[in-house]
Description:
By secondary structure, the protein is an alpha/beta fold. It is built from 15 helices and 17 strands.
Amino acid sequence: MELFNTLTRRKEKFIPGEPGRVKMYSCGPTTYNFIHLGNARALVVFDTIRRYLIYKGYRVTFIQNFTDIDDKIIKRAREENMDTIALAAKYVNEYFTDADALNVMRADVHPKVSEHLPEIVEMIGRLIERGIAYTIPEGDVYFSVRDFPGYGKLSGRSLDDMLAGARVEVDPRKRDAMDFALWKSAKPDEPAWDSPWGPGRPGWHIECSAMSLKYLGESFDIHGGGADLIFPHHENEIAQSEGATGKPFARYWVHNGFITIREEKMSKSIGNISLVRDLVKVFEPAALRSFLLSTHYRSQLDFDPGKMDAAVKGVNRLKTCLNLLEEGLTRADDSVGTNVDLEKRLEELRERFESAMDDDFNSALAQAVLFDLASEINSYLHQTAQPEQGILLKARTLFTAFNGVLGVFREENGRIVLKEEAGSDDLVAQLLDLIIGVREESRKKKDFATSDRIRDELKAIGIVLEDTPQGVRWKRN
RNA sequence: GGCGGCGUAGCCAAGUGGCUAAGGCGACGGUCUGCAAAACCGUUAUUCGGCGGUUCAAUUCCGCCCGCCGCCUCCA
């Protein structure tokens, strides 16, 4: 298995620090709002990577933090006249609603900054002791980039380059313009925590260093996040962690590309931020997830409602296949001879899927294999009146295995579930049975005017009827 | 200014120094159907932005040019 490592800027063979075990950390959201499509991409990308590692048999420990202490939260809380912790807690809950909708697995631990102040303070103290952080009279603590030799190694730039291109006004209290805050002293009405340097709050970057250290140790395998985090966030994390422990931090750095909306950068000023909350009202999560995985994770991905059509249709094709497969199983026979040819092709599909994912998690190619599997299944079912049970079960197992990695469809007890919502289903089903029965009578009498009218009008309210040799099928559109 | 990416069929999107350039959507023809739908079968890039170079051979490597985009500031 190979993955692209931002640190070395090339694909590398993946060798975990401990055989059979993978420790990974991904930067989670700052909880001051609902998550948007860009957050969703990062979530889905790292969830898929994690799922594939599990598929490969690794024991994976996955940590994703919540930044629940932050300037943006303070600002938002003021606007809403809320307590910062309460506001952050609210959006942590909202986060789970959206992440669950996207079929993103929960992390093993979702640590919050607010619950790790002692660890953070401890780490800052260590950096001061080691002489790579310093305090100023106001109570702020800064990291001294000149005292950490490797600064810039992740983003591939030198301190001098950065200074030349710096656009921010330099705080004269810093020793170097690139020094960044580890601890910010509190202004009068800001939330504050005690520390040896006075009341204040942690800087943005130190939390990930402190929490990854606590849950994964000094060195771990994969650290991920959006490409925008490479600098300064991840660069600073490396400086803090390696500065404090003297050990190499994460071995592999994985970054996902950005999402644009209709070819435009997603930003507040353009006003084109797409919230997951709104998107799932329009598109089913399976289609969103399929869309997010239809491009390689490092590439930029353009979201356009029009482009979602292909994803929606594609997912429908997969769903139809799953339904045909289940139907095929009801008329399958276990006494028919084995289909050696198909069995061989299924095995080839598994190999193709794995080599796609082994190659820097090429989910676009992996999805193509899933579509090929659907074609194989449909084709077999089409040409076989009496399908063989064993091969169908194998095909279903394979489909489920692929889906288990891509996470397109929800699964319960190892089986894919397609029903999006329950509820009134029983009544709807009964009414439809009734209507379909009446329509069948018209069809028998060749009263096609009536039968077509029923079909057309059902279609208008979102119910599609399909007449098949196995009877009438209906589905919601 | 510094760093990086991209340009493959109508759209989205993989990919490879030489073997039929994946897959999805769309379109077209056929099978099935009372008609549809779904599914199946087939067609849809002699060609991979342009120009040069390396090579027996380049879409794939190198150079230049054109076009597009991202990061360098809070941001997934």
